[in-house]
Amino acid sequence: xxxxxxxxxxxxxxxxxxxxxxxxxxxxxxxxxxxxxxxxxxxxxxxxxxxxxxxxxxxxxxxxxxxxxxxxxxxxxxxxxxxxxxxxxxxxxxxxxxxxxxxxxxxxxxxxxxxxxxxxxxxxxxxxxxxxxxxxxxxxxxxxxxxxxxxxxxxxxxxxxxxxxxxxxxxxxx
Length: 174
Known about the structure:
Elements: E1 3-9, E2 15-22, H1 36-47, H2 54-61, H3 69-94, H4 97-105, H5 110-138, H6 142-147, H7 158-168, H8 170-173
Antiparallel strand pairs: 1-2
């Protein structure tokens, strides 16, 4: 289906970890990276000054996200987070549940099972996802320029600087 919900249950059948991923073309699918500027438009729709959440936020506080350093951070997280989610999801699927079940039957509380069993089992997946997300955020262009703009000294990121250098002085960009 369109939505996939993945969760782990403890020995008593209660959910311990739940991840949901949206299975629409181009969203939450790292292998479909075209059109990140559309993600910037989505951020505007939700967090822009007249957006769904942005309007009440602006009316209450006078703060607007677009074209601020916070917009750069939000755009990069929004584009890069699927890489982390996918890696953690794969690590959770691959982790052997027998260790968790054994710890639960020996009387360990769910928080202890998660901290001492599950977390060490999925730590390589978390680390790999963090590296992938960081690398993707570092190279983010479309959503950043759409939602945060390209203000020198405020919202200009490395990929935007390289793009501008390619347009004005191609030799300096290389």
